[in-house]
């Protein structure tokens, strides 16, 4: 099927691109800037130049003094692969169906990764070295992509676009190494965010994270010094940014500022100072996001911006007026599903939780394995030692959230019901709906439905057609996530809709209502025999809350054993949450997943259950 395997060769297309931009590619190399991207992983603006008094980041602080700092820069998604898939395509990952973490979803061959356009324009493009793109065909993107990739390997006089990526601040490095007892900042001195309980493990992880940030800064310094030694700084525009929010719990994977706001510093040499938005050392208040970066590079380099790019160039000859807001999204992270969309402007964030029945703090195998702080926080919550703010992470979510960042930087006070902000809420809610519709957001389709709906097309091309009734789907998804019993008649009607995605959201709405969905019992029973396994999964989980756990267990087990990998994963999640709620036993949950071998990430929940004690 096309979802798993289609990706035609782009050789002819790249050749045509080269012909189309011959005028650009034959310009003298010194008429175009080099571009150097320096990136780090899993860090919010925990830098001295961003006002963090615990940070020791002298090289980045110097870069900021020589360049400009963006106050409102965002990754569009709070995890590596979805954020990097947005970067490599110049489109929101949710527009292409590549928003789920570590997925492999074919995109139309007519949409090339941005380095191919730069290469066709004569740029030497290197990546050192992380990719993590959610597209299956990654051949020919770069002139070189490896730990040895370097701009110095280009032809004489050839302009370059080069990326160097530091992994030093990644979440895998948060925990202190065994035996480490000395930190630059004493754990006792750390000022914890109010959502974290005060435990030794959390304090040590924070202290060690700041040490890792200092080490990362030294790597950035090395690459900057190397640029000077190569005598290339005078013709190179340098970008530094983090690939999404911070590594500590409630950073990465979460759509708040702690998960999506990133540092962005850009330095312009004198030769290209005309493109700088402000003088050296200044703050820039424009809203920018990752989807804008490829278009901005093209604008700086004099390369035609492809029509399908969704980003706005915020620098260079093609610069447009600043955005009024940025569009943020999250889908499956690792083995856990959650559908969240958000709009962030300069003052507020409006969040729509389309899976409010799932907590922010689902059990993700990886952070629970590598972060003592995550384990400690969860243990404190289970023991009843967390206050209301610290408990929110582990509880079900409201359908919508509104935060004013100026007086609530940690986004803990939901202002949704404040009359004072009703006008702003209405505007942001409308803006969010318009973004979803304008981008034909694919994230409302369950991942397991992709191959069958796409058939011989890409899921993108399916979503661009009239066969994808997005407005109708969005209307039901909104009513479902409102968690209002008054919407039940419309949810029941949706369960009988001819389109499987509408039926899915009708069932999800009943699941969110739990026992209040009792009048939908007959309609849910009928959906246990639906042709689409994802619809059967939500109907079964909803019925378990209405007292029919045996029927639910039977249906979910069947999907786990016979469904495609993502249908099976959805059923595994349903089983695990029903186990946690006491509707089925641990033994029943384990049995439902035995007898079939799963690959990543569908092997994680079975392994998690095997390691649980009764």
CATH H level, superfamily name of the largest domain: Alkaline Phosphatase, subunit A
Would you count the extended β strands for me? 12
Architecture of the largest domain in CATH? 3-Layer(aba) Sandwich
* Largest sheet: spatial strand order: 4-3-5-1-6-7-2-8
Main pleated-sheet profile: 8 strands, mixed
Number of helices: 25
Summarize the amount of helix as a percent range: 25-40%
| Class from secondary-structure proportions | alpha/beta
Straight-line N-to-C gap: 41 Å
Average of the residue pLDDT scores:
96
Instruction: State the shape.
Output: globular
Q: What is the radius of gyration?
A: 24 Å
* Overall number of structural domains: 2
Q: Would you state the CATH class of the largest domain?
A: Alpha Beta
Structure characterization notes:
The chain is of the alpha/beta class and 614 residues long. It folds into two domains: 2-181 and 209-320, Alkaline Phosphatase, subunit A; 469-610, Leucine-rich Repeat Variant. The chain contains 25 helices and twelve strands. It has helices spanning 2-5, 11-20, 22-25, 58-66, 80-89, 93-96, 114-120, 200-229, 257-260, 293-301, 365-370, 372-382, 388-391, 422-438, 450-454, 459-463, 470-482, 488-494, 500-513, 521-527, 533-545, 549-562, 565-580, 586-593, 604-610, and strands at residues 34-40, 68-74, 124-128, 144-145, 160-166, 236-242, 264-267, 283-289, 326-330, 340-344, 348-353, 400-404. It has an eight-stranded mixed beta sheet with strand order 4-3-5-1-6-7-2-8, with helices on both faces. A hairpin with a 3-residue loop joins strand 10 (340-344) and strand 11. Helix 22 (549-562) runs antiparallel to helix 23 and helix 22 (549-562) packs parallel to helix 24. The longest helix has 30 residues, at 200-229. The model is unreliable at 1-16 and 18-29 (pLDDT under 50).
């Amino acid at each position: 099927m096309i979802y798993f395997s289609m990706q035609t060769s782009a050789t002819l297309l790249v050749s045509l691109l080269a012909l189309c931009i011959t005028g650009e590619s034959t310009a003298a190399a010194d008429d175009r800037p080099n571009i150097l991207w320096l990136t780090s992983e899993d860090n919010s603006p925990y830098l001295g130049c961003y006002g963090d008094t615990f940070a020791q980041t002298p090289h980045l602080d110097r870069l900021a003094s020589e360049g400009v700092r963006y106050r409102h820069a965002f990754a569009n998604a709070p995890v590596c692969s979805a954020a990097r898939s947005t970067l490599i395509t110049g489109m929101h990952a949710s527009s292409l169906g590549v928003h789920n973490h570590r997925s492999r979803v074919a995109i139309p061959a007519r949409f090339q990764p941005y380095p191919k356009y730069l290469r066709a324009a004569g740029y030497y493009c290197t990546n050192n070295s992380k990719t993590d793109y959610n597209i299956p065909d990654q051949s020919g993107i770069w002139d070189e992509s490896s730990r040895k990739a370097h701009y110095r390997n280009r032809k004489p006089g050839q302009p370059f676009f080069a990326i160097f990526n530091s992994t030093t601040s990644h979440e895998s490095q948060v925990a202190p190494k065994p035996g480490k007892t000395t930190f630059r900042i004493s754990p006792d001195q750390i000022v914890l965010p109010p959502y974290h309980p005060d435990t030794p493990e959390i304090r040590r992880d924070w202290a060690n994270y700041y040490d890792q940030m200092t080490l990362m800064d030294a790597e950035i310094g090395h690459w900057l010094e190397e640029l000077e030694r190569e005598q290339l700084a005078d013709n190179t525009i340098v970008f530094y940014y983090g690939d999404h929010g911070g590594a500590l719990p409630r950073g990465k994977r979460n759509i708040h500022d702690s998960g999506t706001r990133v540092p962005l510093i850009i330095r312009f040499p004198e030769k290209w100072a005309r493109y700088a938005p402000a003088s050296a050392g200044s703050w820039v208040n424009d809203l920018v996001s990752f989807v804008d970066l490829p278009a901005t590079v093209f604008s700086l380099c004099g390369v035609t911006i492809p029509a399908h790019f969704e980003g706005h160039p915020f620098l260079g000859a093609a610069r447009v007026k600043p955005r009024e807001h940025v569009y943020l999204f999250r889908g499956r992270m690792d083995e856990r599903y959650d559908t969240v969309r958000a709009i962030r402007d300069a003052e507020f964030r409006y969040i729509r939780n389309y899976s409010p029945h799932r907590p922010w703090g689902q059990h993700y195998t990886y952070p629970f394995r590598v972060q003592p702080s995550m384990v400690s926080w969860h243990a404190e919550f289970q023991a009843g030692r967390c206050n209301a703010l610290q408990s929110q992470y582990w509880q079900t979510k409201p359908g919508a959230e509104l935060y004013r960042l100026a007086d609530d930087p940690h986004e803990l006070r939901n202002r949704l019901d404040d009359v004072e902000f009703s006008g702003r809420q209405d505007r942001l809610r409308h803006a969010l709906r318009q973004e979803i519709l304008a981008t034909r957001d694919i994230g409302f389709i369950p991942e397991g439905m992709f191959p069958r709906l796409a058939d011989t097309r890409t899921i993108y091309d399916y979503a661009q057609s009239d066969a994808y009734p997005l407005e109708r789907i969005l209307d039901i998804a909104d009513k479902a996530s409102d968690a209002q019993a008054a919407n039940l008649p419309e949810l029941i009607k949706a369960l009988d809709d001819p389109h499987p995605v509408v039926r899915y959201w009708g069932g999800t709405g009943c699941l969110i209502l739990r026992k209040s969905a009792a009048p939908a019992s007959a309609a849910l029973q009928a959906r246990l025999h639906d042709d689409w396994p994802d619809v059967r999964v939500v109907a079964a989980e909803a019925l378990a809350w209405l007292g029919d756990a045996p029927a639910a267990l039977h249906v979910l087990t069947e999907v786990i054993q016979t469904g495609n990998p993502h249908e099976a994963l959805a059923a595994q999640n349903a089983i695990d949450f029903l186990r946690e709620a006491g509707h089925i036993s641990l033994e029943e949950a384990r049995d439902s997943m035995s007898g079939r071998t799963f690959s990543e990430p569908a092997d994680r929940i079975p392994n998690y259950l095997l390691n649980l004690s009764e």
